[in-house]
Amino acid sequence: MEKRKELFPKKRMRVDFWLIVILVLAAFLYGWNIWKAGSANSFYTSAIISMSESWKNFWYASFDPAGFITVDKPPVALWFMVIFVKIFGLHGWSIVISSVLFSLGSIFLIYKMVKPYFGVLAARIAALLMTLTPIVVADARTNNMDATLVFFLLLACFVLQKAVNKHSIWLVALAFALVGISFNIKMLQAFMILPAMYIFYWIASKDSWKKILCGSVVGTVALIIFTLSWPLAVDSVSKENRPYIGSSTNNSVLNLAFGYNGTQRLLGQTTGTGGTFTGMENNKKSTKTGTGNGNKTGGKTPSMTKGKVTGGGNTGGNSIFNVGTAGVTRLFQTALGQQISWYLPLALFGLIIAYLAAYDTRRKWWQVNRRQEQLIYWAGWLVPVAGFFSVASFFHPYYTIMLAPPVVVLAAVGISSFIESLNTIPNKRDCWIRGIMGLAITTNGLLQAFFVWEYSSLFGIIVAAVSIIMSGFIIFSRSRIKLFTIIGLLGLICLPAFWSFTPTIAAESAAIPTSGPSLLSGNSQSLGSVGSSSVNTKLISYLKKHNGSKAKYLFATTDSNTAAPYIIKTKKAVMTIGGYNGTDNAITLKQFKKLVKKGEIKYFYISSHTSNNAIIRWVKKYGKKISASTYGGNSSSTTPSGMSKKGGRGPQQSAKGGPGGKKNMAKFQGKKPKKMGKMGKMVKNKKNKKSNTAGKMSGGMGQQQSSVLYELD
Questions:
Q1: Residue 55 is inside which H or E element, if any?
Q2: Which of 41, 279, 511, 692 is the most exposed, fewest CB within 10 Å of its CB?
């Protein structure tokens, strides 16, 4: 009998076993020990707590429960974090779990974007390289916005791929709308992929030019709507009825977007945290930096003078502003390279290899096929982002996660295209491709040797030697080329894999995410919390007892870094008159005096990094200084309720055996630190070269000393 045809035939779900393995590995790297995350980035953790208190705070991304001032970023990424906290409660893991999940989603999206055009091998390699990119691991383990941003940008690019294939203008609109949403995660940083999207849409779409033009217009309109909807909604509200926009100069989201989070990122910092940081080394005449986790220049620690950070040209290897010397080589210097550039030469040469392998001699040179369209897409992401980080003046090293997707994809497609070409490309072109692959492996191996050299010259020599030998076999051998290629590539994965494991082993969940052997050393100066992560419990008890029923704020202070630990600990409002670093003009003296007169503010806590503005002068002149012995003297390190002690730490906690210290490493591994193995001992080569500058910069970025409490009448 003839079998009856099914009306709705079932599609078989094909599960890629190797993708599952890669995702499990990524879940381990990103998620293991996140229950020790503590307060992670306490600045944003304070906002998460405040935003969970009311819908108003949730909408505006308020830093404090009273809704006085916002954080320096839009709210979208924080919204996801708040949702998890509302569901599971406030824990170290619940504030970072959304970053973990978005990072896993990014790996899956890369796999789905690469597979249809370059095959399953390229997709698997790209997923694996993304998993083993050190800064991706570090960012995935914290509550910063970068992991969320990368996911939404990849989602936008993925949707645009589908839009081109399905000839759908509405999917084009959705793709650009997702970029608009990404703008409300981290502002103008999201726009760096727009050139790639527009170029790809025009060269890859097979529709008529009129339909492509229409799609571009519709996409641009969607981009504008989703970009400006939240900023305009906030700016249209009376300034008296909403929080002050932190790090802006005129209490405007648009000013924040195009100023502090816009032009200043490229040209240099002038607001938000009080001046241009010369230690960021955008001046080619400055002293050399980019020495990784050590300070070889002997540069002075910057100090705050009249609201500006001054000092030597290097803030130390572990400095939050150590981004190397601006120029075409910046991404190859250790400051940034040790976090993001492990596969960068392979990506650059891989782009050439894949383009040559896909080249069709029957077409004109300007006529591109599907693979070449995809290569242009990823190169369009890589080039402007790499260009920005090569010349920009104000950013942290962990921002370079933006480079991870194009770097890993281009490296992966170059590898897979080379393997495919061994049996399909004519001899003449095959010689060129083999030569380029040999050069790629050699160059990449030498770069990795340079990155590891400051920790272990032996490992540097081994990596360089293996790369050169395997490259020689690839170029000159006539057999077993695939085997030599695999050995060479496995050698290039070992060091970045080790670097990627260090945040996981060290239970790192820092405000300034980083990776590397220094996390495994007791000599490491953790960059954990930008500011103090300790609170004085006796001070809290004193304030609660003496504040009175009219007090709206537990106390007022100058900056968010001083206030954040107290908000996290007590869930009560603390006013920060100067925002993130004490330099915002969030409130005038006249307005402040009115709040004092009404009894809403009774105490002011002046820390050592306070700027000398009108409110501070008034507090010192008319306030009653409270003796430190009255409320317990110096600050004592405590942990916010419901959170682990091992996260969100400052330098003082590292010295006591925090997750990056010897004590906790021994506890984690069940053995003494001296038995950690050769790779764990790399950092001993630089023991005497460390610069103890992390966390000691003025302006709210170091430990609090000589803090004074004033009572206001």
A1: helix 55-60
A2: 692
Mean pLDDT over 234-239 rounds to 96
Count CB neighbours of 428 within 10 A: 7
In terms of average pLDDT, the best of 3-7, 359-363, 481-485, 559-563 is 559-563
Task: Give me 181's structure tokens.
Answer: 């949403």
Alpha helix positions (H), 399-536:
404-424, 427-453, 457-476, 481-505
Q: Which of 512, 551, 490, 462 is nearest to 650 (CA)?
A: 512
* pLDDT, average across residues 560-571: 93
Task: Output the CA–CA distances (angstroms, integers) from residue 645 to 37, 445, 522, in the order listed.
Answer: 8, 39, 17
Residue 293 corresponds to which tokens in the numbers above? 């986790």
Is the distance from CB of 252 to CB of 559 less than 8 angstroms? no
598 neighbors 713 (Cβ within 8 angstroms): no
Listed residue (144, 195, 219) closest to 406, CA to CA: 195
Q: What pLDDT is recorded for position 15?
A: 84
CB distance 340 to 403 below 8 Å: yes
C-alpha 393/C-alpha 30 separation (Å) is: 29
The Cα angle at residue 259 between residues 253 and 260, in degrees rounded to 5: 90
* Residue given tokens 């492996």 in the structure block: 441
Tokens 């708040």 belong to residue: 82
Residue 89 has a CB neighbour count (10 Å cut-off) of 9
Distances in whole angstroms, Cα of residue 157 to Cα of each of 172, 197, 204, 337: 10, 7, 13, 26
pLDDT value of residue 533: 59
Does position 11 have pLDDT exceeding 80, yes or no? Answer: no
Instruction: Count Cβ atoms within 10 A of the Cβ of residue 628 and give its class: 0-12 exposed, 13-18 middle, 19 or more buried.
Output: middle
* Most confident stretch, 405-419, 471-485, 578-592, 638-652: 405-419
d(CA 473, CA 471): 5
Place of tokens 């890629």: 16
How distant is the alpha carbon of residue 633 from its chain centre? 36
Question: Which pair of tokens denotes residue 304?
Answer: 């705050």
Residue 535: partners with Cβ closer than 8 Å, 6 or more residues away:
565, 566, 569, 635, 636, 637, 638, 640
* CA distances from residue 61 to 55, 69, 82, 179, 231 in whole angstroms, order as listed: 10, 9, 10, 20, 12
Given the structure tokens 């010295």, which residue do they identify? 655
| Cα(485)–Cα(434) distance, integer angstroms | 10
